[in-house]
Amino acid sequence: MKIVIIGNSGSGKTWLATRLAALASVSVVHLDELFWLPGGFDKKRPDEEAASLIAQSRNTPGWVVEGVFGELAAPFLEDAQALVWLNPDWAVCRQRLLARGSESKAHMERAQSDTGLARLLEWASAYPSRGDSRSYAGHLSLFQHFQGHKLCLQREEDAAGLVNFALQAGVLEALQRFAKHA
After folding, report:
1. DSSP assignment, residue 45?
2. Which segments in the chain show pLDDT lower than 50?
3. What residue ranges define each of the domains in the chain, with the CATH number in brackets?
4. Helix (H, G, I), strand (E, B) or coil at 2
5. Phi-psi category of 105—alpha, beta or left, where left has phi over 0 and alpha has psi -120 to 50?
6. Taking Cα atoms as reference points, which of 175, 161, 138 lies closest to residue 1?
7. 23-42: per-residue pLDDT in tens?
8. How many Cα atoms within 13 Å fall on the side-chain side of residue 104?
């Protein structure tokens, strides 16, 4: 099974990806790990290296890809069976980012400084108004052009409901049924 999950920072992508991947017994591919060099969120990986990591990840039997980087998600969509776009209100994303910052200074085993968190909050708050592949407009374009099963979830209850249904019916079945009713 191959699934891509996109959304703003703090939308719940990692939470959902971790649960769906565990249920399907596949790995999670974090786009942050493909975009950033190890150790933090301040040094971008060279494009050639990121492209190589994407190719390696795409060639595995199954995965759940999650991240904000639309340009890195796009190649995975060529193989994906389903696309989930998490699009909660900014207040929800902001609350999660603040909680993550106050719980620890690490996210995905990477250092997150107070300054870095402040920059992330400022950047993520502009999600609706930016026009790049990491924005609402960029994610909407990916969503509109994807031909497989797709759903846009705007409420936490919907993501939790998807996981609960997947526990009973299986991940792909849950995505198919949710996509029909979304």
Report:
1. P
2. 102-108, 110-111
3. 2-181 (3.40.50.300)
4. strand
5. alpha
6. 175
7. 999 999 999 999 988 876 67
8. 6
Contacts 24+ apart (CB under 8 A), 55-63: 57/29, 60/26, 60/27, 61/26, 62/1, 62/2, 62/24, 62/25, 62/26, 62/27, 63/2, 63/3, 63/21, 63/26, 63/27, 63/28, 63/29
What's the pLDDT at 176? 80
Terminal Cα-to-Cα distance of the chain (whole angstroms): 21
Q: Is the pTM of this model over 0.85?
A: yes
Which tokens sit at 125? 């708050």
Taking the CA atoms of residue 162, residue 79, residue 67 and residue 124 in that order, the dihedral angle to the nearest 10 degrees is -100
Contact 62, 24 (CB under 8 A): yes
Q: How far apart are CA 113 and CA 105, in angstroms?
A: 6
Q: What is the DSSP letter of 36?
A: B
Instruction: Specify the residue for token string 């995965």.
Output: 63
